[in-house]
């Protein structure tokens, strides 16, 4: 690792096995979805809604959220991830 502040050459990065030392974090919309759906499901169940209605409701909300993120972000990576998830489910 260079100590002179210069960016390491590709060979040095390959030798260390790391492309960068920065930490990767999930964007806020992903975290909000991961937190809000279990909370919404719990609240709906405590309110007396049957589970057979909660799951399709939350699934349709998630589908709308994914569609909105695809439209707004143009997300190629998100579309590829969604396509691979659908393929894994159907196989």
Fold and architecture overview:
The protein is an all-alpha fold and 91 residues long. The protein starts with 9 loop residues before the first helix and ends with a helix. It has helices at residues 10-16, 28-46, 51-73, 76-90. Helix 2 (28-46) packs antiparallel against helix 3. The protein has four helices and no strands.
Could you give a short description of this structure?
This protein has 91 residues and is mainly α. Helix content is 70%, strand content 0%.
Number of β-strand runs: 0
Please tell me the overall pLDDT. Answer: 75
Shape: globular
Distance linking N and C termini: 45 Å
What share of residues are in beta strands? under 5%
Which residue ranges are poorly predicted, with pLDDT under 50 across at least 5 consecutive positions? none
Report the sheet with the most strands, covering strand number, pairing sense and barrel closure: none
Instruction: Estimate the helix proportion, in percent.
Output: over 70%
Sketch the topology as an H/E string, one letter per element: HHHH
What value does the Rg take, in angstroms? Answer: 20 Å
Structural class of the helix and strand makeup? mainly alpha
> Count of DSSP helices?
4
Note the main attributes of this structure.
about 90 residues, single chain, mainly alpha, about 0% strand
SSE blueprint:
Elements: H1 10-16, H2 28-46, H3 51-73, H4 76-90
């Amino acid at each position: 690792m260079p100590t002179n502040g210069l960016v390491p050459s590709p060979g040095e990065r390959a030798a260390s096995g790391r492309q960068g030392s920065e930490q990767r974090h999930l964007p806020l919309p992903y975290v909000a979805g991961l937190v809000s759906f279990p909370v919404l499901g719990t609240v709906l169940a405590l309110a007396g809604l049957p589970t057979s209605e909660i799951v399709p409701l939350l699934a349709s909300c998630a589908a709308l959220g994914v569609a909105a993120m695809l439209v707004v972000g143009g997300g190629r990576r998100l579309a590829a991830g969604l396509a691979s998830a659908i393929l894994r489910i159907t196989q």
